[in-house]
Structure formats: structure tokens, C-alpha cells
């Protein structure tokens, strides 16, 4: 008598064995909005009610006068002056459009200010990226906080969850391959700038290979690869690092070449709050470019969209010929930072039960047009607002795109900070490349570059 009931129960439970959390893809009706009221990457086409945020009309794809391919980058808005400045005295007037971190920094340092300029919606991408984004809208899904069936475009242009926004940030359009020639500095609270790295490197996104396909991409799974070689200061010269990232963070890999040992070693952990070698340990792996980590340590909550003053169209920061000219007391020199009003998605991260992290709570502000999380705030284990993270973006019509540039943080408790990926003294500021050989991003490639 009981056997039929038992079998029936088992059959009913069978589909639940090994069940995973799956976020549904957009419907065809929802995806159609990408060709009407939304821009092809997912931002709202229309401006805001008072016109302070204009409509998106295709982005900035016109060459910047004077620019030469592979050289220094000019400022397409160099003639513009700030509309107004926000400081400690008047911040109450604008606090509804400021992040917690920026409000804390304004209160902490009376010399700090935010110069607000006219808003320009410069985000653009090749048509192939727009087409792939449209395909992803209905086929890509979030499975246990990891994308599935996504390739060649923004995976979730109509996000329904915080984790989807963060994957849009990590898989944002930033070109197929670029060279990086950069410098990094620690900024002390008393205004000193200490050189930590002079780097040259290559960055490539197989996820955006124009001749690739979803099927081919799934065979290897590397969505982002990097190789960095240190040229200075002398104590760091010759060090190198290679990294490869996949949707499944357990499969991420990293290697480092240590000059003192003259050998390549595999990094045991390229995740989370582990100090990042290329920042001399001043930033964690998951703080690079505001966020670059695994999502599985946190619960991600989508708080919605709001208008915010954010660093934007940051070619102004590239114009001084010296890195030290753009550095301040724990933050970038406000004279060289352009802020604009844009709509951002706000996502909050809370540490999952039973796990550990030096920053158990964070909040990220991600631009609706580019998906770059331009600002981030982190709270420490005591509940204190600890760090405010920032990432500049650069107008690159030759890509085309508006993509990440310098990044860093200000420690709101200690008053010091860090600025990485500065390119001021470099004759080549992020030259665009067609593609690098896959062998560039292997441990073997570093041994040939070792100089000592």
C-alpha cells in the first residue's frame, strides 16, 4: 500500500535534487525596449524631467581633434567650465545626489570639492555589441550568481537583480584588446605621493572576440585576461603577473613572477579581500575598478536607480603631463576631475552568513549607459564607513566607447588613498589593439620578460 505513494513522492522530489537558483531572462516584449525607449546597452534613451540629463543620441563617436592613433588622448570638452562646485559648506543643497562616501569626504576635508560640469552621454559601442546585447537579453540567465548563455554584449541589459548589474559591470564593453602603460601612487593624508608601480601590460576580453561565438567561448570560458610587467620603481622592476577570469570564480587563475626567486609561482588566491600584488597590497582583488571579484561571498540587493553626481568623461584627468599633478591628499586633485549628473543603478552587497571579509557591507553606483560602477562605498566590521572607491572613465571614439581609466580609493578613517592606472606621463594612453596571441596570457610569457 505504501510503495506507490513512496515512488510518487520520489518522482515529485527528483527535479529538486541539485536544484540551482536561476534568474529568468527577459521576455521578447521586454527585450524590444532596447530598440525603442532604451539605448542598445540598456540605459534610458530619454533625458530627465528638467533636462539636466540629456537624451542619449548615439554617444560620442567623433574623433577628438588632434588625437593620433595609439598616442595621447585629448579632452573633447576641454573648453567647458564647471556649472557649480560642491563643498562642505553647500553640500546639504545637493546631498540627495551624492553617494555616502562623497558626503563623508566632503565633511572630512574642507579643501575637497566636486566640480560639476554639463552632462554628456558619450557611451557607444560597435553595432555587433548592440546586436549581441539584444540576443543576450532573452537567452542569458543568472544561475547561482553566474551568467549562462551570454556572449559578446551586455549580459543583462534589463536587470532584475543586483548580481545582474554587477555582472554587467564586469562584462561591460571596453574593447577587445588594449595596451596599458600606467603608474600607481599611494596618496598620504598629508599630501605626499609615493610611487608604487610603473607598469606596462596587455588586457584582452575573449568574451568580445568579433570572430567568436557562444559555443566557442564556452569551451575555454576565459572572459578576461591580463598580463602586467613592472618597470619600476627599481625594487619592483621585472616583477610580472598574469591573470585569467571565468564566470565560475573557482576557475580563476593567476601567476606571479618574483625577481628575487627568478621563478613563476601560482597565486593561491586571486579572490576577494586578498591584497592585489599590482597595487603593492594597498587594494584588494575585488576593489580594482570599484569591483572585480567573485559574487558568491555576498548577497546582492538591487536598490533601484537614482540620479547621482559621478566622475564622468574623465579625459580632463589625462591632460597634465605629470601624475603627481593630479594627486591630492588621499584623493585626486579636484582641479582635474570632471563630475556630471547621470542615472546609476545602486546595488548593495551584504556578507553571506558563515563567510568572512574585511568589508562585510558595500554599496555600488553603476552608470546606466556604460555599466561601469564608477563609485563604491565599503563599511568595515565595526559598521564604520571605511573606504570610498572610484573609477574614472575615458571617452575613446576610436573604440568606440566610454571605458574605465584610473581607479583608486580614499580611506575615510585614515585619510590616505591610492590611485592606479594613471597615464599622464605616458606618450601612449591606452592604445587600442585588434587582438593578442593567447600565449601572451600564460605563465611562460612572464619568464621571457624577467629582467633580473
From TrEMBL:
Region annotated Disordered, chain positions: 41-74
Pfam families according to UniProt: DUF1329
InterPro entries for this protein: DUF1329
Keyword annotations of the record: Signal
Record keyword Ligase present: no
Residues in the signal sequence: 1-24
Name the record gives this protein: DUF1329 domain-containing protein
Lineage: Bacteria, Pseudomonadati, Pseudomonadota, Betaproteobacteria, Burkholderiales
Amino acid at each position: 500500500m505504501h510503495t506507490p505513494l513512496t515512488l510518487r513522492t520520489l518522482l515529485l522530489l527528483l527535479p529538486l535534487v541539485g536544484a540551482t537558483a536561476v534568474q529568468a531572462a527577459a521576455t521578447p516584449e521586454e527585450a524590444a525596449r532596447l530598440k525603442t525607449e532604451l539605448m542598445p546597452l540598456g540605459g534610458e534613451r530619454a533625458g530627465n524631467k528638467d533636462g539636466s540629463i540629456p537624451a542619449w543620441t548615439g554617444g560620442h563617436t567623433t574623433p577628438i581633434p588632434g588625437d593620433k592613433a595609439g598616442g595621447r588622448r585629448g579632452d573633447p570638452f576641454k573648453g567647458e567650465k564647471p556649472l557649480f562646485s560642491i563643498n562642505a559648506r553647500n553640500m546639504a543643497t545637493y546631498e540627495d545626489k551624492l553617494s555616502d562616501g562623497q558626503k563623508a569626504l566632503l565633511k572630512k576635508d574642507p579643501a575637497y570639492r566636486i566640480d560639476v560640469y554639463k552632462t554628456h552621454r558619450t557611451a557607444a559601442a560597435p553595432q555587433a555589441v548592440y546586436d549581441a546585447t539584444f540576443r543576450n537579453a532573452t537567452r542569458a540567465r543568472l544561475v547561482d550568481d553566474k551568467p549562462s548563455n551570454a556572449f559578446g554584449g551586455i549580459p543583462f541589459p534589463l536587470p532584475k537583480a543586483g548580481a545582474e548589474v554587477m555582472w554587467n559591470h564586469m562584462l561591460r564593453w571596453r574593447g577587445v584588446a588594449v595596451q596599458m602603460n600606467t603608474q600607481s601612487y599611494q596618496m598620504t593624508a598629508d599630501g605626499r605621493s609615493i610611487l608604487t608601480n610603473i607598469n606596462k601590460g596587455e588586457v584582452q576580453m575573449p568574451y568580445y572576440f568579433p570572430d567568436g561565438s557562444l559555443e566557442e567561448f564556452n569551451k575555454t570560458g576565459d572572459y578576461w585576461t591580463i598580463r602586467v610587467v613592472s618597470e619600476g620603481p627599481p625594487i619592483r622592476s621585472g616583477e610580472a603577473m598574469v591573470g585569467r577570469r571565468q564566470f565560475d570564480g573557482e576557475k580563476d587563475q593567476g601567476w606571479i613572477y618574483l625577481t628575487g626567486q627568478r621563478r613563476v609561482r601560482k597565486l593561491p588566491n586571486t579572490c576577494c579581500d586578498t591584497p592585489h600584488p599590482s597595487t603593492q597590497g594597498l587594494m584588494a582583488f575585488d576593489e580594482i575598478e570599484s569591483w572585480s571579484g567573485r559574487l558568491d561571498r555576498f548577497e546582492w540587493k538591487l536598490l533601484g536607480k537614482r540620479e547621482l553626481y559621478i566622475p564622468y568623461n574623465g579625459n580632463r584627468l589625462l591632460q597634465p603631463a605629470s601624475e603627481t599633478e593630479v594627486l591630492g591628499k588621499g584623493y585626486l586633485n579636484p582641479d582635474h576631475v570632471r563630475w556630471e549628473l547621470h542615472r546609476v543603478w545602486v546595488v548593495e552587497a551584504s556578507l553571506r552568513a558563515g563567510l568572512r571579509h574585511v568589508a562585510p557591507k558595500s554599496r555600488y553606483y553603476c552608470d546606466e549607459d556604460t555599466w561601469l560602477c564608477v563609485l563604491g562605498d565599503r563599511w568595515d566590521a565595526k559598521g564604520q564607513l571605511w573606504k570610498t572607491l572610484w573609477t574614472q572613465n575615458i571617452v575613446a571614439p576610436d573604440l568606440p566607447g566610454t571605458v574605465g581609466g584610473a581607479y583608486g580609493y580614499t580611506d575615510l578613517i585614515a585619510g590616505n588613498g591610492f590611485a592606479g592606472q594613471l597615464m599622464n606621463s605616458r606618450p601612449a594612453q591606452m592604445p587600442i589593439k585588434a587582438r593578442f596571441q593567447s600565449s601572451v596570457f600564460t605563465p611562460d610569457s612572464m619568464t621571457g620578460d624577467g629582467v633580473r
